[in-house]
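So, is this right?
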Amino acid sequence: MPAIDRKTGSNDRRCNLNRKKVGYIYLAIAIIAEVAATLALKASEGFTRLTPTLIAIVGYGTTFYCLTLVLRTISTGTAYALWAGLGIVLVALVSAILFTQIPDLPAVIGMLLIVAGVLISFVSTALVRKLPDLPAVIGMLLIGFGVVVIHLFSKTVAH
């Protein structure tokens, strides 16, 4: 007889898999909302423009609401690594297009480390559940190292 899931009361593994998929959908929404809110924050010019200010407030509210839903099915470390890592890279890419804030080489290297860390973390925790936690930890360390590289060596400035 299969084990019963304590949270859902279900003994169906498909139910747990579907819950995890929904968690990743909420995570994608949280990432998109956070990117939109961050870009709106830049466009708000210190909260002096109403529409971008409202977009930032709603975007961050949506982000944190979705993250609370994500944490029901995805571990905190994995969710935060994916949210922060992908958010950093997406904000940098869109900022390069919208605000002509082109990242310099150290920023690009840092973002590549972040993407590598996100991929390792995601693959080790979401797709290959039988791996030990070490790959997830390595992925998260790469994300952190990428952020440090950007912070210490990048000379990209806001316009």
